[in-house]
Design a protein that fits this description.
Number of domains: 1
CATH topology: Spore Coat Polysaccharide Biosynthesis Protein SpsA, Chain A
Radius of gyration: 17 Å
Number of strands: 7
Distance between the termini: 31 Å
Structural class: alpha/beta
Order of helices and strands: EHEHEHEHEHEHHEH
Helix content: 25-40%
Strand content: 15-25%
Oligomer: single chain
Number of helices: 8
Bound molecules: guanosine-5'-triphosphate, magnesium ion
CATH class: Alpha Beta
Shape: globular
CATH superfamily: Spore Coat Polysaccharide Biosynthesis Protein SpsA, Chain A
Length: 237
């Protein structure tokens, strides 16, 4: 199974300088066969950073994480894709956990920040606003779309993998940060095999979030209702 590690960036030069060189080069143990960057139009030297390291960069014509996912599915020849954000949130030590799940038949693999052994960025705080909101989105997705299989604990995390076959089946069309929620919801609707493993979420190392909580939260609510009334992706009997 050929697996591509897709590194998603929009102006992440400071974070890349801090962590990129600790990402293992593709080999038998790394869990992926190649690394390709998908860039949303960085202007801070991110693209030059990759090119200096001979990492292929696919440049987006339109911004958006959803655009990046769709470009990956369209342009990269692979059997499966791991999506990784190099901003410090995602544990590099978990990169090799995706392949065994994919080779065991998973269609979608999610690194979960909400399972028993997981750590969420907000766990040390008393008010865990983002975690609580995420758990409401998780509950809604499971309640409305899960017909079999286990409860999905982290329906929106970006640190995940999907097979090419599943990506084609799901016909994802979200352009923005709701791409992962759409992927999880449609995978639930189509009864695909979703496997989660616990991960430890780190803090963003530098730079600014592209996903401010309130507007992004509103987009998730809208996404939920679009998927609820989406006629072409009905729940199989
Ligand atoms: N390719 C691509 N990557 C993007 C785009 N927008 C954001 N990203 C990347 O997606 C990753 C996640 O975005 P963040 O802004 O960190 O969102 P977040 O993780 O919810 O927010 P933080 O808590 O600040 O980390 C980062 O690596 C971004 O650089 C885009 O349009 N295209
Ligand atoms: Mg982040």
């Amino acid at each position: 199974m050929k697996i591509t590690l897709c590194v998603l960036t929009l102006n992440e030069i400071d974070c890349l300088q801090a962590i990129f060189d600790s990402i293992p080069t593709p080999n038998i143990e790394s869990g992926y066969d190649e690394i390709i960057a998908i860039d949303g139009g960085s202007t801070d030297g991110t693209v030059d950073f990759f090119q200096d390291r001979n990492i292929k960069v696919i440049g987006q014509s339109k911004r958006g994480r959803g655009e990046a996912f769709q470009l990956a599915f369209e342009k990269i020849q692979a059997d499966a894709f791991i999506f990784f954000s190099p901003d410090g949130n995602e544990a590099i030590s978990d990169l090799n956990k995706f392949r065994p799940c994919l080779e065991n038949g998973a269609d979608v693999v999610i690194a979960s920040r909400m399972m028993k052994e997981s750590v969420n960025e907000e766990d040390a705080q008393f008010f865990k606003w983002r975690k609580w909101a995420n758990n409401i989105f998780n509950f809604a997705a499971n309640l409305a779309f899960r017909r079999s299989g286990t409860y999905i604990t982290d329906s929106i995390n970006g640190y995940r993998a999907i097979t090419k076959t599943a990506a084609q089946q799901l016909e994802l069309n979200a352009h923005d940060y709701t791409i992962e929620y759409q992927m999880t919801i449609r995978a639930l609707k189509m009864k695909l095999r979703i496997i989660e493993f616990p991960t430890i979420e780190g803090e963003r190392i530098a730079g600014e979030t592209g996903a401010p909580s309130i507007p992004t939260g509103l987009r998730f609510i809208r996404r939920f209702f679009i998927e609820l009334f989406e006629p072409s992706k009905s729940i199989p009997k």
